[in-house]
Amino acid sequence: METIKLTIDNKPVEVPKGTSILHAAKGAGIHIPTLCFFKLGDMPIENRPGGCRVCVVEVQGRRNLAPACVTDVTEGMVVKTHTIRALNARKTVLELILSDHPTDCLVCAKSGNCELQTLAQDMGIRKLHYEGEQSHYREDTSPAIIRDMDKCVRCRRCEMMCNDVQTVGVLSGINRGFMSVVSPAFEMNLDHSVCTYCGQCVAVCPTGALTEVDHTNAVIRALADPSKTVVVQTAPAVRAALGEEFGLKPGTLVTGKMVAALRQLGFDYVFDTDFAADLTIMEEGTELLNRLTQFLAGDKTKLPILTSCCPAWVKFFEHQFPEMMDIPSTAKSPQQMFGPIAKEYFAKKIGVERKDMVVVSIMPCLAKKYECSRDEFSHNGSPDVDYSISTRELANLIKQANLEFDALADEDFDKPLGESTGASVIFGTTGGVIEAAVRTAYELHTGNKLPKVDFEELRGLAGIRSATIDFGGLPINIGIAHGLGNARKLLEDIREGKSTFHAIEIMACPGGCIGGGGQPLHHGDFSILKARQEALYREDAGKPIRKSHENPFIIELYKEFLGKPLKLIYINPSHPEE
Amino acid sequence: MSSIKVELKQCEIDKIKEICQSFNNEPGELINVLHKAQGHFGYLPAEVQEEIALELKISVAKVYGVVTFYSFFTMLPKGLHPISICTGTACYVRGAEKVLDEFKRILNIQVGDTTKDGRFSLSCLRCVGACGLAPVVMIGEKVYGRVSPDGVKDILNEYS
Amino acid sequence: MHLLVCGGTGCKSSASDTIVENLKAELEHNSLEDDVQVIMTGCFGFCEQGPVVKVMPDNTFYVRVTPGDVKELVAEHIIKGRKVRRLLYENPETKEPVSDSKHMGFYRKQIRVALRNCGFINPENIDEYIARDGYSALAKALGELSPQQAIDIIKKSGLRGRGGGGFPTGIKWELTSKFEADQKYVVCNADEGDPGAFMDRSVLEGDPHSVIEAMAICGYCIGASKGLVYIRAEYPLAIERLKIAIKQAQEYGLLGLDILGSKFSFDISLRYGAGAFVCGEETALIHSMEGHRGEPTVKPPFPAESGYMKKPTVVNNVETYANVPVIFNKGADWFASIGTEKSKGTKVFALAGKINNVGLIEVPMGTSLKEVIFEIGGGIKNNKEFKAVQTGGPSGGCLTSKHLDTPIDYDNLIASGSMMGSGGMIVMDEDDCMVAMARYYLDFTVDESCGKCSPCRIGTMRLKEILDKIIKGDGTMEDIDRLRNLSSVIKDSSLCGLGQTAPNPVLSTLDNFMNEYLAHVKDKKCPAGRCKSLMIYKVIPENCVGCTACARNCPVNAISGERKQTHFIDTSICIKCGACIERCKFNAIVIN
């Protein structure tokens, strides 16, 4: 590989050709501040419009300052990152950005987690020398995401996520000059657009311009209401990331502490969405086998089947591929399977009326908030799941309750809806749903026990993956995509008749739910995603039961309440016996 | 950008399709398509942009992003007699501002607006290239040179 | 005999169309239509005196002709051979009519290279272009020269980009020629956006074939078969003539497949700008041509490597191309003999503002500002005092009397704190306030900033606000420091040329007219008497007869006083509209 020699702040540095000054400096232990720059882990996606100009450095012989993020090194280059000229420019530019930014940091949702705030601190900005008109835009509140563009710094990261990574195309730069901003077409509200609420824009926004709709107060009110029985369900990916909000190392599993905290918060029953994930496998797995049978009987339209547990993915599909609506599984997502089971089955079991039960979900996801609001998931105006809060919001609730999270002793989920298998835990990562489905479908199809439940070939973080699993002599082609842009590629193949997959798992967010829009911010660092992923596989490996169909409470649920699989999806939640 | 709501007739949708097809539905031709569409409709209401996005297979947000970037494109219909005041430097130093003020005063509208009766709209442009005639005002295609604030009334009277 | 009628935008706006119609009708009426040809040409340059009609071959130059003059013109000049004295250009000093345009001060110092055909040929007739050596340069390049040899000629000529930056054209072509690609592009930047500049428009309107020929030569040099002209949609006449010219060139086999049997193929299509000044920047222009928002991207990669559709692309402006065919026809040495050491050839300027001879001029590089303003431009209008000349549009700066002897070239202008820009040249007199002028340009930049980078998006806004504050009389000395620091940071850290040069009008006025800033800040006065907020309307008691005319006409009731008593203006209410002064018959109201 061709290398380039240069000096940065008098340090000799040698880096491969094509390296930016920013990366070269980082390698030499020199941290040049950035704002708009964003690199999404191992994916070939970098946001470096060169727009914020915070990373400008002095390059000997160059007329003006160079943006480090987007200037490649050249042989013999002499870079100085902290001359008075560079520092003055950097500070002035930052002051300019701050001069067009509200100063309500104390009450901003992003406070403490805001990259702009951190920069202002790090650069010792104490006074703004420039002030004047500020740009104002209408605030936009949707079921999941709040856009307060007064706080936008035009880094364009959200635009990049929405267009390049997710290919949803809701956001674009609009207007120009001082009034330029990122917005949906015609400055319409997000809920009028084709937004999937995947929340990846929120996950990368450096400031408080994009935040989630906060339901913590509603949850607090429900918990304080003595007439309500408040049930909580926690999604698999939450336990692998929540600890980060309390300073724990990425990948620390905090399942037991999370349960303890939820109980301390006052939830009457602490259940696990994992239980519903096992149920999903029963439903989706059965549907897969049914469709496989029809497929093998000659109806080639029956496969592939696509997973349907990700609400952002479902919404993406509805908008972008409406003519292919019979391809995805008809199974509801675990969150929405849990809702009616809690309100119709469990409520009856404990003698509580539906109206007196509040179901709260803790999700790594923002689309789940929107999913709760979909008409088909409520009964006479009463939603199956009342509130969905993100991992970040849960952390905030725990802090508000003055709990010392790290010191909590581990506790177990309540029964029956807290019991789950290893298969359901890995729902939280890309490849996990399909692996869980394979474990069950294999055994149901072949009638044989799996010799080994781990399917390494389905794991990883590559955007599109594929593997062929031998179902007792029948090769089943599995496709996996995470990130909606990758999903689109697989869908276009299906549309063009080029796809050879029998089953495809799709998750909207890069990494799957571990990288969801409601998770602690990973700032594009894929090592954090990897650590979360490993944590989930660890939890799976440590579970006594690792196949959904072996979950004794699932078996009991079918026996007592549901009857056979494949009814849940069709039945009206209030009349399960139909 | 403020806009008004319209409902496209089938023939108008067909027209948009025809325009897009004349550029092979090439997304790279977006700006040329928008020029043609504005030439036909007089402005670019949201519904026209949506249809163009559909035809060129690009996001509406992108179309809107382009429309709002270029000052030539407008989402509001212009007046029957669109008035453009040149505010290029030559006209500026020869008093274009005062002429503009006079138009604003008489028509009682701001730059970018259209009079209530829809007869006149007011906009500024940067140099029509007739600096010898500065300050210059254009009404429709007609160019008025060496306009003074006193002459504004007479010019407008031509259109009443 | 030929009658050349100027068909530039300025003259067309003054009914030169009707003049042509009337001339033709009148000639026909006198059965002279076969002897005398009426040709509508491109811009003559002398816009101040338009509409212009020139009689060839004797160079008689009639100015400010109206359609009503036609009858007399034909009867006297054409039929009787007597010049119509009242329509001749008058020497401003001697007041004598000048019969031959060669003797006019406006033309005497000019050398027309890029504008060589403007005003001489009918731009809508390719034969007239060919008759003046048109397409012989292309034929020479294709027939006798290898692409590298052709590039070497341009390199040797010393031609630099006329769009503002001044990058050597030959080197640009050579760089692009070196990159391998299945397709390359030749782009002509005709998105002239400087307020007060119309050079490119005049060339395209007056001599479109010179640009087409040059683009084809460039295509041959770099190995491109496609050319694109990015032209302002607001230039309908230029677009029309360019389209006609392209069609004619195609019909003559000078564009299209296998041009002149050389196996070289080249064609040109148009792309329309849509009103964004930033699209003059080449990366923004390319994004715009691709159907995107015209936001610039960081260079490198330069268009030579990755331009339109990510293919190697040459972007030159109209005037640069217009120079190319002459260089082949007359030789690189001839071209290099004109101009200064580092700036060869000529430069076209759009001369405007407070000057007698507004128009389009072309002078050799190295001509002094004084020669341009006082000899060609005929000095300042209404015998006022020269104050400043602004070159380079919003990217340039204001130069003052101490720069009058500076020979105009790329490097001298930059050294003086301005720049060549595309060729706008605006002259200002004692009535122009330089702080207001800086603000005018900042207003433009704020309007035209694409908003992509923070220093330009927010910084120019803050500059404008500080200038506003000063103009309103609220400025402080700290504001002047802030103007300086902010300007230098914007210059140093903006993404593209627009931002990097946006502070120039501020910096150059700070350098050259600090006293005016100080007057606004310290004395709260505008020396030019232009800044409204700093004016105070006062009644001179001795002159006031108490007629109440002023009070009756004051729109805000700021004037009080009994009939036959001295009136009084409440300055806290006064909006300085000037209505009172207009009404006062006794000179009893003054502005301080």
Features:
heterotrimer; B: 160 residues; alpha+beta; Glutaredoxin; 2 domains; elongated; C: alpha/beta; Rossmann fold; Ubiquitin-like (UB roll); 5 domains; 4-stranded mixed β-sheet; 24 helices; 19 strands
Q: In the CATH hierarchy, what is the architecture of the largest domain in chain C at level 2?
A: 3-Layer(aba) Sandwich
Principal-axes geometry of chain A comes out as globular
- Report the radius of gyration of chain A as a whole number of Å: 25 Å
Number of H- or I-type helical stretches of chain A: 17
Number of domains of chain C: 5
Shape summary of chain C = globular
Number of strands of chain A: 22
Structural class of chain C: alpha/beta
Helix count from the secondary structure assignment of chain C: 24
State the helicity of chain A in percent bands: 25-40%
Give a verbal description of the structure.
The complex is a heterotrimer of chains A (578), B (160) and C (592). Among the domains of chain A are: 3-122, Ubiquitin-like (UB roll); 140-212, Alpha-Beta Plaits, CATH 3.30.70.20; 278-333 and 421-552, Fe-only Hydrogenase (Larger Subunit), Chain L, domain 3, CATH 3.40.950.10. Chain A contains 17 helices and 22 strands. Chain A has helices at residues 21-27, 84-99, 115-122, 157-165, 200-204, 216-224, 255-265, 273-296, 311-320, 334-350, 367-372, 391-400, 422-425, 432-446, 484-495, 526-541, 552-562; strands at 3-8, 11-16, 38-39, 46-47, 56-59, 66-67, 78-80, 140-141, 145-147, 172-174, 181-183, 210-212, 229-234, 269-272, 305-306, 357-363, 378-379, 382-383, 387-390, 464-471, 474-482, 503-507. The longest helix of chain A is centred in the middle third of the chain and has 24 residues, at 273-296. Mean pLDDT of chain A is 93; it is low at 568-578. The longest helix of chain B is centred in the N-terminal third of the chain and has 13 residues, at 10-22. In chain B, a hairpin with a 2-residue loop joins strand 3 and strand 4. Chain B is elongated. By secondary structure, chain C is of the alpha/beta class. In chain C, 59% of the residues are buried. Chains B and C meet through helix 2, helix 4 and helix 5 of B and helix 1, strand 9, strand 11 and strand 15 of C.
